[in-house]
Amino acid sequence: MLPREPIIRKPRNGSDRPRNVTITRDNLGHRARSRQTDADAVFGTIYAQAEDDFNRVETNYINAMGRLAEAEGESKIYQDLRMKLFIDPDALKKQYAASPSG
Predict the structure, then answer these.
(1) Helix 77-86 and helix 54-64, axial crossing angle in degrees, nearest 10
(2) What is the pTM of this model?
C-alpha cells in the first residue's frame, strides 16, 4: 500500500507554527500519524477522525448550537428549544475565543 500525500495543519489561531504531526493514508484510506509529542498525537487523531466523519461532527455542532431545525427542517424545532435551555451559544463562543490555542 502506498501512502498518500501527507497533510500538515496549522493551529486554529492562524500562526505560522504548524503542528508537529503528519497524517498519511494508504490506498485503503487507513490513517497513520507521525508526531513529536502526545499533544500532537491527540491533535492528529482528532483531525483525522473529523476528516473521516465530517457530517457527524458538523451535525453535532449544529445541534449543540440549537440550530438543527435550520438544517433538517421544522420537525427538529423542539430539539433546538431543548438545547437552548441547556446551552447558551453566545457563552460557548466566548469560552472558545478565550481558550488557549497552543
Answers:
(1) 70
(2) 0.53
Residue with cell 492562524: 14
Grid cell for residue 85 = 435551555
Is the alpha carbon torsion for 65, 67, 72, 74 positive or negative? positive
Residues 52-77 pLDDT 10s: 888 998 898 899 888 999 999 999 99
- Please check whether residue 31 is in contact with residue 21, taking contact to mean a CB–CB distance below 8 angstroms: no
pLDDT of residue 29: 67
Whole-angstrom CA distances from 10 to 6, 14, 36, 73 are 13, 6, 15, 35
Q: What is the C-alpha to C-alpha distance for residues 91 and 99, in angstroms, rounded to an integer? A: 12
| Mean pLDDT taken over the chain | 76
Other C-beta atoms within 10 Å of 94: how many? 11
